[in-house]
Amino acid sequence: MRAAIEALPGSKIREVANAGLGRSDVLAFWFGESDEVTPEVIREAAAQSLLAGETFYSHNLGLPELRHDIARYASGLHGAVEMDRIAVTSSGVTALMLAMQMLVGAGDEVVAVVPVWPNLTAQPAILGAHVTRVPLRPRAGVWSLDLDELLSRVTAQTRVLLVNAPNNPTGWTLTRAEQQAMLEHCRGTGTWIVADEVYERVYFGGAPAAPSFLDIADPDDRLIVAQSFSKSFLMTGWRLGWLVLPRGQLDAAGKLLEFNSSCAPVFVQRGGQAALVLADSFVPGLVARLQGCRDRLVAGLRAMPRVTVAAPPGGMYAFFRVDGRDDSLAFAKQLVSVHGLGLAPGAAFGPEGEGWLRWCFASKDPARLDAGLERLSQALRL
Ligand SMILES: Cc1ncc(COP(=O)(O)O)c(C=O)c1O
Questions:
Q1: Angle at 255 between CA 250 and CA 258, to 5 degrees
Q2: Residue 382: pLDDT above 80?
Q3: Does the CB atom of residue 90 touch ligand 1 within 6 A?
Q4: 117 in ligand 1 pocket by Cβ < 6 Å?
């Protein structure tokens, strides 16, 4: 086995989940998904596709009709994005891995804004690249970026700047001014931006989507945006995403896709088409429900002694800390085994997240959040 693979960290979220294995009484909020099933029309579209016998390979880049629909959807949010920049992928995580495979090789430097979902920093490491971590820092529970610090780390030697915003786990969301500064800087250094924008619709800032690099970049900029159906359409188990590439890079992406998944399953892509038809009528309601969940959870956490938390502007997570509980893995394991409360340890997202806990608030039944809060409150009373 290659040393880079041996060196990959095991998932600390799984480690906590394993501590509660086989227990039906655990209230689990550790994974990044809602407990709500995918809307029926999307499931029906996939079922119809299967019944119609769509069981064959598709084009490497995905069904042209789905790529067309994605281009129209992205254009509606961000201004013209042509179909010849869209590649369909088997999940957001695959989209990100493909982007990394396209851009980095052994010895390259990737600068990443952290803490972040661990897959993002593992992917370049798998390819033998070196990852430089630039930390967001918390003040009263609000995480923010020192832009000057970030830009000083991105040099002509930096191959990729990797940014996930809205950020998992902190909820940190880029401002337009920060995006503009990053784009200008990367144009100067010749650095690619890989933007993980899978939470763009899960945004509570009063717009249909969080600020996207697509809003400001030219089609020829060195920018790759990774997207997913998972979060906006409750489709985590479907494994469907897409890439927005610079103009002229699609053929290369198609070749690379051949050697990864070859293509996404056709019936899953039909589900994706149905999801995009539903977007305008479904996503705003989902986001409103999530905002209700966020407000309820954050208010409950705030009411507890020694807890620091802020309402995240985007994403599906409350990231909070309890004074005196600095070992997040040990604390999360204790919460599961003693109190039946399943949260993700902040250390799972890098050393910058140590001392914090992540609580996914995407729940169709907000009473579950109340029950979870009661268990945490009990734990803090002991
Ligand atoms: C920041 C971030 N990016 C990408 C993904 C990938 O989503 P998926 O592979 O389900 O499309 C996730 C999933 O949790 C995520 O949190």
A1: 125
A2: no
A3: no
A4: yes
In contact, 199 and 32? CB cutoff 8 Å: no
User: What is the residue whose two structure tokens read 């969301």?
Assistant: 173
Q: How far is CA 30 from CA 12, 18, 37, 90, 277, in A?
A: 10, 11, 17, 23, 31
**Which residue's alpha carbon is nearest to atom 11 within ligand 1?**
92
- Give, as one character, the DSSP assignment of residue 311: -
Is 371 a residue whose pLDDT tops 80? yes
Is the CB of 198 within 6 Å of ligand 1?
Answer: yes
In the chain the beta strands, taken as DSSP E runs, fall at: 27-28, 86-89, 109-114, 130-135, 137-139, 142-144, 158-164, 192-196, 223-228, 241-244, 307-308, 317-322, 341-342, 344-345, 356-360
Burial (CB count <10 Å: 0-12, 13-18, 19+), residue 219: middle
- The 8-class DSSP code of residue 146 comes to -
CA dihedral 157, 247, 249, 262 (to 10 degrees): 130
CA distances from 34 to 204, 289, 317, 379 (A): 17, 11, 11, 25
d(CA 112, CA 58): 34
Report the greatest alpha carbon distance in the chain: 61
Nearest by Cα to 374 from 323, 320, 301, 322: 301
Say how far apart CA 31 and CA 13 lie, in whole Å: 8
Encoded tokens for 310: 């802020």
- Would the pTM of this model clear 0.90, i.e. be above it? yes
φ and ψ at 366, to 5 degrees?
Answer: -60, -20
Do residues 307 and 356 make contact, with C-beta atoms less than 8 angstroms apart? no
Q: Does the CB atom of residue 166 touch ligand 1 within 6 A? A: no
Residue found by looking up tokens 């799972």 in the block: 348
| pLDDT tens for each residue of 82-92 | 999 999 999 99
Quickly list DSSP for 229-291. Answer: STTTTT-GGG--EEEE--TT-HHHHHHHHHHTTSS--HHHHHHHHHHHHHHHHHHHHHHHHHH
Alpha carbon distance 88, 74 (integer Å): 13
User: Which pair of structure tokens corresponds to residue 295?
Assistant: 């407000």
> What length does the chain have?
382
